[in-house]
């Protein structure tokens, strides 16, 4: 749970910085967010969640 909140917070801050600096425009950001929400409701969501957990576990084992 803590990893999910941290990942969402990090991603949100990253998107906000990209929007503020002009590297990311509002409409493409909204389209990507809509795609993410749509993807989360499909059958591939557990595989994505598992992959993110595996990468986070690998990163935490490095330090």
Primary descriptors:
mainly alpha; about 60 residues
Descriptive notes:
This protein has 63 residues and is mainly α. It has one domain. It is built from 3 helices and no strands. It has helices spanning 2-21, 26-40, 45-62. It is flat, with a radius of gyration of 14 Å.
What secondary-structure arrangement, pairings included, does this model have?
Layout: H1 2-21, H2 26-40, H3 45-62
Query: Which structural class should the secondary elements be placed in?
Result: mainly alpha
Name the poorly predicted regions. Answer: none
User: Helices and strands, in N-to-C order?
Assistant: HHH
Helix share, percent: over 70%
What is the compact description of this entry?
The protein is an all-alpha fold. It has helices at 2-21, 26-40, 45-62.
């Amino acid at each position: 749970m803590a990893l999910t909140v941290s990942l969402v917070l990090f991603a949100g801050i990253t998107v906000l910085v990209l929007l503020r600096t002009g590297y990311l425009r509002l409409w493409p950001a909204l389209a990507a967010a809509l795609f993410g929400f749509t993807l989360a409701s499909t059958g591939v969501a557990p595989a994505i969640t598992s992959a993110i957990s595996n990468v986070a576990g690998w990163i935490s084992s490095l330090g």
